[in-house]
Sequence to fold (672 residues):
Amino acid sequence: MSQSNTNPESAMIQCVDVHKWYGQFHALRGVTLSVARGEVVVVMGPSGSGKSSFIRTINRLEEHQRGTIIVDGIELTHDVRNIERIRSEVGMVFQSFNLFPHLTVLENITLAPMRVRKMNRERAGKIARELLERVRIPEQADKYPGQLSGGQQQRVAIARALAMEPKVMLFDEPTSALDPEMIKEVLEVMVDLAKSGMTMICVTHEMNFARNVAHRVCFFDQGNIVEMGPPAKLFSTPEHERTQLFLSQILH
Amino acid sequence: MNTSAALPPLTERISILRWLRQNLFRSVADGAVTVLGIVLLLSLVIPIVTWALTEARWQVVIENIRLFAIGQYPIEYVWRVWVCVLLLALICGVSWGLWLFRQRAVGAAILTAFLLLGLLPGALSIPATEKVAGFGLMLPSLAWLVAMSTLGALGYAIAARAPARARKLVGPAWILYLPVCFVLVAGLGPDGLLATVGSNLWGGLLLTLLITAVGIVASFPLGVLLALGRRSKLPVVKAFCIGYIELIRGVPLITILFMAQLILPLFLPDRVTFGPISFRPEIDRVIRAMAGVSLFSAAYMAENVRGGLQNIPRGQFEAADALGLTATQKMTLIVLPQALRMVVPILVGQFIGLFKDTSLVTIVSLLDLLGIGNTVLAQPKFIGTQREVYLFVAAIYWIFSYVMGAISRRLELPQSASRR
Ligand SMILES: Nc1ncnc2c1ncn2[C@@H]1O[C@H](COP(=O)(O)OP(=O)(O)OP(=O)(O)O)[C@@H](O)[C@H]1O
Ligand SMILES: [Mg+2]
Fold:
C-alpha cells in the first residue's frame, strides 16, 4: 500500500502490521507505514482514530502488541537497551509542551545531552544556545518555562528534542494548544526543520503546513490508515469516503 | 515593599479614627465583637502578665538554666556543644549567602533563632553556684552573640566572594554536620578532649534538638523510599511498603517508643564475637528513642511525599521517557525534585510536629526539655513552681516551632508549581 518509492533498506521507520489494544479496546488495527530518510509525513484523522497512539508506539511511550516497528535498523522489542537507544534517536514534541517547570530553559535543553549522551556542561550549553538561536528565542535561556508564552514554550520543547541530535522527530498536535499568532511562530520553526532534511512524522490539522511541507499525508480512521498520498493529490481528489467527509469538515 | 502605591493619600492614611472605623467598628455587630474581644483578651492577659512580673518565682528557671539547656552534660565538655552551635552558624551563613541572599525575612528568622541559642551559652558559662539574675548573664551572652554573628557573617562573606567554591562545599557540609555534631556530643574515646559522654547524661534542649534532628534526617530518605516503594511495580516491595505505612500510622507514637525500648533489643544476638573481641551488644536508650521517632515519622513522610508524586502530571514522565532518561534519572532529576518542592510546606509542618512530639520520650524516662522540667519540679527548693516551669518550657517549644514555620513560609522556591 506504500506509495513512496523508497526501498525498505533506506527506510528510517518501518512499521508492519502494528496492532495495539487498550484492555479490550482495539486502538491500532494493523498499521503499515514506511518512512524514508528525510521524509516528512503528516498524519490526519478524526479524534480517537489512533493518531497519537500510533506515533507514541514509535518511541515506546505505548507498547504495541503485534507487528514490528524498526527505527533506523533497531527493532523495538522488550529489550530495555533497544528502547533506550531508540528513544535517544527519536525526538518528540507534545501538544502540552511538557517542559520541566523546575528547570530553566537552558537546563531543560542540556539535561538529556548531559545525562544520556554524557556531554560536558560547556559543550551542551553551547549547543543549547545555538538551538535557541535556531528556534528564535536566544534571549529566554535563563527563564523558567512558566515565564514564557505557549508559543515560546513549544519552541523550547522543540529545541530540547533537537539537542539530542535525533534522526527522527515526532510531533503530536504541536500547535493545537496555541493561539493563532503563536501557531505561526511554531510552524515556522517546523518548516525550517523540514527543509533541513529532518525525518518527521507530524500529527497536525494545519492544512497549509501539510500542503507546503509534507511529502505524504496519511489519513487515519478507526485505528488504521485508510488513505495515503502526496498532499496535492489527497486534498484535491480524495478517494475514500471517510477522507472526503473529514476534509470537507476541516476546510469549512 | 511595593504596596505604597496602592495606599490612600497620606492625610487619610494617618487617620487612626478612620482605620478604627473601617476595621473594627464597621457595624454595630462588628463593634460589639471588637469590644467583647478586647475585654476577653485583657481579662486573660492582664492577670498572666501581672503574675509573671510580680509573683512568679523565675529563680527556678534561672538557677536551673543549665539543666534545661544540656541536662547533666559535664561542664568541662560543654565547649563541644558550643562548637556544634558555632558550626551551624557558619554553615547557615554560607547557605544564606548562596541561596537566600535576596530573602531578608529568612535571614531575620535565622538570626532570631541564633539570638536565642546565643543566650544559653552565655548563661551557662557562669558556674552554677554564682549564678544570679541580671547583668551577670548579659556579658557572656553578648560575647557569644558576637562570636556567632561573626561566624555567620564570615560564612556569608565566603559565599559572596567565592560562590562556586562555596557551592561545592556547602552540600557536603550539611550532610556531614549531623554526624560531626553527634561525634562531638557523644565523644570518641575513654579520655582526652573528646572523651565519651554517655547518653544518660544528655538532656534538656540539647537532647530534644538531637532527637528532632536525627528524626528528620533519618525519616526523610526513609519516607521517600517508602513513597517510591508504594508505587513500585514489584508486588512484594509494594505490599511491604503499604503494610509498613498503614501499620505505623495506625499506632500512637508512644506505643512505638515503648516498643523501640522493649523490642529492639530482642533482635540483637546475645553475644557478638570478632576474633578476640567478644561483647554483649546493646543499643543505647537514646538511640532506641531516636529509632522509634524516625520509624514513626517515616510513615507520615511517605504519605506526604506520595501526595506530591501523585500531583506530577503524566506528561512529565512521558517527556523524560521520550528523551531517553533511565528510570532512575527520571525519578531523581524530574519527578522527585518537583514532588518534594510541592510538599515542602507540609513537610515542614510535619517536622514541627515531630519536634513537639519528641516530648513524649519523657515517658520512656529520657530527660528531654520537658523531662528536665519535671525533675526540676521535684527539687524541694522549688516546690509549687509548676506554672513557671511549664510556661518556660512551652515558650521554648513555641519559639523554635515559630521560627521553623516562619522560615518555611518565607522561603521562595524557584518556580515550583507554575505550569500551564
Ligand atoms: N490510555 C488509554 N487507555 C484506554 N484507551 C485509550 C488510551 N489512550 C487512548 N485510548 C483510546 O484509543 C483511541 C485512540 O486514541 P488516540 O489518542 O490515539 O486518538 P487520536 O487520534 O490521537 O485522537 P485525538 O485527535 O483526540 O488526539 C481512543 O478511542 C481513545 O479513547
Ligand atoms: Mg491525539
